[in-house]
Amino acid sequence: MDRLDKILANLGYGTRKEIKSTIKNGEVKVDGIVVKDNSIKIDPYNCKIEVRGNNIDYRKYIYILMNKPDGVVSATFDNLDETVIDILEPRYQAFKPFPVGRLDKDTRGLLLITNDGDLNHRLISPKNHVDKVYYAEIDRPVDKSDIDKFEKGIVLKDGYKCMPAKLKIIESDEDGSRVEVTIQEGKFHQIKKMFNSLEKNVVYLRRIRFGPIKLEEGLEEGEYRELSKEEIESMKKI
Ligand code: URA
């Protein structure tokens, strides 16, 4: 049970003051009856709430899939740069969501954003072996010997030995290469550092899969959508 004004504030219907006047104006119904007391306590999961004739789909958590654009930081707040949270509409910001793990400012692609702390921990823990798949363009050729090095565990220049990873070559010639890399951990700049230790540079990086969730064609950079019930269930099985 929670206060009606708090429930509506959590859903982004304005400040507590604005919501109080919305309620006093008779614009809110609970189970079909106009309610004018903003402090009334109700169970939002089992009551039908309407605001100005629109049914409210109450939920505690939100799960968003964003195609992160270049130049935006994976953080909830930044003094200088736009963040992935700044891009979201206020009705989503109201849930106080945060990105699951990080993509570098110049990395694009699949980023999950949620306010579900438990799921976040499960998804980012290397113990759970969640695959993260990246499409990358490299400034130099790669070959079978690089695939073997990824499989054995690349040793970074700082001495850290990575968990085994999968390198798939899409195309490679003297001008550079296009590859897919699958990793299960998520150290800072991990993919870039893995190639650096082979004296190669990542010139373009886009995440295309996170566990069971794939970035679909048609979701343009900077666009986002809520995950479907099936997608949320598939992540909770991890
Ligand atoms: N590895 C990187 O180097 N950068 C990212 O953003 C993600 C993985």
Give structural notes.
- This protein is an alpha+beta fold and 238 residues long.
- The chain has three domains: 2-55, Structural Genomics Hypothetical 15.5 Kd Protein In mrcA-pckA Intergenic Region, Chain A, CATH 3.10.290.10; 63-126 and 213-236, Alpha-Beta Plaits, CATH 3.30.70.580; 131-210, Alpha-Beta Plaits (2-Layer Sandwich), CATH 3.30.70.
- 24% of the residues lie in helices and 28% in strands.
- The chain has eight helices and 15 strands.
- It has helices at 4-10, 16-24, 84-87, 90-93, 117-124, 144-152, 190-196, 229-236, and strands at residues 2-3, 28-30, 33-34, 41-42, 49-51, 54-55, 63-68, 98-99, 108-114, 132-138, 166-173, 176-183, 202-210, 213-214, 224-226.
- Strands 7, 8, 9, 10, 11, 12, 13, 14 and 15 form a nine-stranded mixed β-sheet that branches.
- A hairpin with a 2-residue loop joins strand 2 and strand 3 (33-34).
- Helix 1 packs across helix 2.
- The longest helix is centred in the first third of the chain and has 9 residues, at 16-24.
- It is elongated, with a radius of gyration of 22 Å.
- The structure holds uracil (URA).
- Uracil is lined by residues 103-104, 107, 189-192, 205.
Can you summarize the main beta sheet?
9 strands, mixed
Helix content bin: 10-25%
- Which CATH architecture of the largest domain? 2-Layer Sandwich
SSE run = EHHEEEEEEHHEEHEHEEHEEEH
Tell me the domain tally.
3
**CATH topology name of the largest domain:** Alpha-Beta Plaits
Task: Please mark out the parts with pLDDT under 50 across 5 or more consecutive residues, or reply none.
Answer: none
InterPro entries: PsdUridine_s_RsuA/RluB/E/F_cat, PsdUridine_synth_cat_dom_sf, PsdUridine_synth_RsuA/RluA, PsdUridine_synth_RsuA/RluB/E/F, PsdUridine_synth_RsuA/RluB_CS, RsuA_PseudoU_synthase, S4_RNA-bd, S4_RNA-bd_sf
Pfam families: PseudoU_synth_2, S4
Keywords: Isomerase, RNA-binding
Domain RNA-binding S4: 2-65
